[in-house]
Design a protein that fits this description.
Elements: E1 22-25, E2 28-31, E3 39-44, H1 51-62, H2 64-69, E4 72-78, H3 82-96, E5 104-106, H4 111-115, E6 130-135, E7 141-147, H5 155-171, E8 185-186, H6 193-198, E9 205-208, E10 211-214
Parallel strand pairs: 3-4, 4-5
Antiparallel strand pairs: 1-2, 3-6, 6-7, 8-10, 9-10
């Protein structure tokens, strides 16, 4: 007797092109190509009119201007209709006084959610988990973070991560744990034994051949 075949799920991969999409949203039809030349934070939530999601959407909305200053747009998604999205956005404005300025994808078919691995069997068979994707101006997926259904995300962390990614890209460096703009960055380790031997003399804040920092 043959064993039952397990379903193979496709998930997006870091440093690969982000899955393409063209979808109806609360701001009209949107596609990944619309965001070319800008960073994009694409994030999913389990359902409209739920309390944890409401707190997250308000936090994203309050950080909207900061994301915009970083050349970054926001795009939400849930497996709800456009009408539900519109009603929820209006409710948040009425009950909490917060304007949701970014579009929300209608994904009743779950096409986008499945392409991005937002559906997690055993955790969200019919709704999207709290998944967040940072896509760069070339359409490449640079970061992805998944949260459980029960716990809200830290939007401040996504702002921090976006700043760190941009700093790494612009300067060819890495950033340490909880790095904040203005702090020292990590110099990439030398790739050869000779370069490792010379690292101490290169003027960095030197701890060992593989660990050196500098100010930008």
């Amino acid at each position: 007797m043959s064993e039952p075949q397990q379903e193979t799920l496709a998930f997006p991969q870091l440093n690969k092109p982000a899955p393409d999409f063209k979808s109806k949203t609360t701001h009209g039809e949107k596609s990944l190509a619309d965001y070319k030349g800008r960073w994009l934070v694409l994030f999913s939530h389990p359902a409209d009119f739920t309390p944890v999601c409401t707190t997250e959407f308000m936090a994203f909305a309050k950080a909207h201007d900061e994301f915009q200053k970083l050349n970054c747009d926001l795009l939400g998604l849930s497996i709800d209709s456009n009408y539900a999205h519109i009603a929820w956005v209006r409710n948040i404005k009425e009950k909490f006084g917060v304007d949701i300025q970014f579009p929300i994808i209608e994904d009743l078919s779950m096409k986008v959610a499945n392409a991005y691995g937002m559906i997690q069997p055993g955790a969200s068979d019919t709704s999207a988990v709290r998944a967040t994707f940072i896509i760069d101006p070339k359409g490449v997926l640079r970061a992805m973070v998944y949260y459980p259904m029960s716990n809200g995300r830290s939007i401040a962390e996504f702002v921090r991560l976006l700043k760190a990614l941009q700093t790494s890209d612009e300067n060819g460096v890495a950033t340490p744990e909880n790095w904040q703009p203005g702090e020292k960055v990590i110099v990439p380790p030398p790739a050869t034994a000779q370069a490792a031997q010379e690292r101490e003399k290169e003027g960095y804040e030197y701890t060992d051949w593989y660990f050196s920092k500098k100010s930008l």
